[in-house]
Every structure is written in structure tokens, then in C-alpha cells.
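Title: Prediction job returns without error message
Component: structure pipeline
Severity: low
Priority: P3
Assignee: unassigned

Description:
Job completed but the reporter wants confirmation the result is attached to the right record. Sequence as submitted:
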Amino acid sequence: MSDDLDELYQQVILDHCKTPRNFRVLEGANRKGEGYNPLCGDNYTVFMKMDGDVVKDITFQGSGCCISKASASLLTDSVKGKSKSEVKELFKKVHDMMTTGHVDDEGVGKLAVFAGVHKFPARVKCAILSWHAAVAAVDGQDGPVSTENESN
């Protein structure tokens, strides 16, 4: 990846960290996913309003490092309007991208800023935490999810 592209990606991540989008409790949420990274203390709750199988609105609340907060912010922008199966498919693409650096040009869009995370295996858990919580929420899973079982 070029230095200019690395710098652009860093700017996007810092922007979403300093001014996260959809950072609030969602009134009237009918789904909730909780994510916790015991190694670094990142802790986020993802709130969703689902209409049938479609994510009508999504927000998040919690605390963590800049990578985890930026990832949650971009996640909320990326899954609004998507169906449960589309959210799960996007999770697979994002997870693959974060663990391998391979960017699937079909469907990741702005999320490509996290492709470089694979170079820092300890940070993959930070970046993917809110995604695990979002998948738990669309599945209606109770209880918090953890990055302890994450292979990277």
C-alpha cells in the first residue's frame, strides 16, 4: 500500500475515532449486541432497530481504543438498510480483509481503511469486536460476545 493511501486511511480512522457516527443509545431498539475484548478492555454495545430481517437503524455506545471506536462508527454507516444475510456476508468480507489484508472490491467500500490492520494481529480483535456484536444482534443472541475465540 502506498504511503499516501496509508495516510488517507489513518485520517479516516482518526476522524471516526474523534467524531464517531451514531454514537448513542438507540431509543426503541429491538436488538442489542454486546462485545468485550478482555485483553485491552474495549467494550461496546450495538443497538439495532430491525424491521423483519432488515436493519432500519443502528447505533453503538461504549469505550475502547481508536481502532475499535472507528470500526464501530464505520460499521453503523455500512449496515443500515441491509438484511440479516447481507450483514453476515459483509462480516465475512470484513473479517477476511482484517485478517489477510485482501480487499474484496465488491461491497466493502470505506471499510477498506481497515485492510492494514492485518499487519498488527493484536489490533484485529479491536477492529472486529463491534462486528461480532452486530452479528450477535441480528441473530438475536443474548449475552456478550468476546474476542477471546478470535484466532488473530
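Comment from assignee: result matches the submitted record. The chain has one domain: 3-141.
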